[in-house]
Amino acid sequence: MRNPSTLLRLLALLVACAPLAATAQVQMTNLVRGSNTVTFASRGGYGPYLVRTSTNHFHWSDQGDLEARTNWTFSAFASCGFYRVADVNSSNLYGGLFGLVQSEQGEFGALMARHRLKSRLWLYTTKGTPHTNATYKATNYWGKLLANFQTHWNGEVQTWTGALEILGRMTTSNANNMTLAWTNGTGPARRIFTLSFDFPYSASANRNNSGATAPNASDPTMTLRCTYATAQPEIDDNSATLVFKSTSVDTTTLVQMDPANATNIYAFVRNYRVSRNGVQVNLHFREGYPLYQGQPPWILKTLLLDRWLSPTTARGGSLPAFSTDSYFSRTLLPGHHNFFEFVLIEPALDPALSEATRAALAAANIRYVYTYKDLDIGVSADDIRYFGFDNTIRNP
Q1: In whole angstroms, what is the distance from residue 237 CA to residue 235 CA?
Q2: Do residue 359 and residue 217 come from a single domain?
């Protein structure tokens, strides 16, 4: 992404097998290594904080959420692991949390596209202009928001942080639009991104910063698009069998999920097993409602993924057993009315996955585990497939 110098300032380092001295700003404390977990705390700084992990001190990946809390529990590495904590607000510029928007995981869109573009965007107001003004213009208000844009790149989960307007080149294609564009990589690895915000009102007109016209994180329709120099595989929905087609463009949307999903009686908690040929995959997550201009929809026929509730585990047959609780390693595509659901799992995107399991999956040519579950009609058998690093599809 642009402006790599604005990436997170890393303030403290913790080694899971032997604690090191922490910095004066953020201190790591109370490290406890359990049989399957690592628990620790920190003190100092302003927050919110982000934890990064590594198995080798060279390649780092973000783990967990961006949070104000200072106590963490993560799945443990099988061997030695390294942890460090970033205070993304080390200069104490953040006001309040404006909202978290994330990749939409509902019934519309392509499964592998949404997985490749899987993103989360934490937005914070500043403590001054324009967020404390009596009036605002949407492009100015949103452009000055302090953003933490988290996605995965080359197998690692990374977070860009800074004012939203410097994430990429900012343009306005019409009166209701704001678009950011940037490029990652070169040559065959080149990827061109655009993140578009389409507002339900003029983006350049003055609006009152209070009451019914106060801005919401769910006001615009947010679309993330990527154009690839090298074509990518996508599942061919028009084929009678499960095969790949090629695509050079991925598109997905970002939404703000309703915080009330945790207590909404109409939200679903899914906890089921997918089985085929001796292989079992256990899935546990909550589905719920997004927000539109700060409010839940009047009607929504298919619920979206709200959050994963426990690790996904898989084992059996020739599949190397693994467990993953990473947001980025699992992607949901529900069918209409959630009658059936597809899940794509890329275990290597979990930074806590052991090197031995990574090597075993690579040796077995398993990059993704694909599952299908008939949840309502009950006439279709479970399906599990392995997608290889060589873009092959095979049964377990």
Answers
A1: 6
A2: no
d(CA 253, CA 197): 10
Residue ranges making up the domain that contains 365: 259-394
Say how far apart CA 216 and CA 214 lie, in whole Å. Answer: 7
* Per-residue DSSP letter, 216: -
Q: Are residue 353 and residue 389 in the same domain, yes or no?
A: yes
Contacts of 108 (CB under 8 A, 6+ apart): none
CA distance 283 to 330: 10
Q: CA-to-CA distance for 110 and 142, rounded, in angstroms? A: 28
Q: Where are the alpha helices (DSSP H) in 89-193?
A: 111-116, 138-143
Residue pair 269/256 in contact (Cβ under 8 Å)? The answer is no
Same domain as 285, residue 315: yes
Q: Which of 95, 99, 94, 66 is CA-nearest to residue 220? A: 99
pLDDT in tens, the chain (396 residues): 433 333 332 333 433 333 333 334 788 888 888 878 889 888 889 999 999 888 877 788 898 899 888 888 888 776 778 888 889 998 999 999 999 999 999 999 999 999 999 999 999 999 999 999 999 999 999 999 999 999 998 889 999 999 999 999 999 888 999 999 999 999 999 999 999 999 999 999 999 999 999 999 999 999 999 999 999 999 998 888 899 999 999 999 999 999 999 998 888 999 999 999 999 999 999 999 999 999 999 888 999 999 999 999 999 999 999 999 999 999 999 999 999 999 999 999 998 888 899 999 999 999 999 999 999 877 899 999 999 999 999 999
171: helix, coil or strand?
A: strand
> Are 226 and 241 found together in one domain?
yes
79: left (phi over 0), alpha (psi -120 to 50) or beta: beta
Structure tokens at 98: 């404006």
**E strands along 337-391, which residues?**
340-345, 368-374, 383-387
Using the 3D structure, point to which of 24, 55, 87 is the last residue of a domain.
Answer: 87
Same domain, yes or no: 71 and 114: no
- The domain tally of the chain equals 3
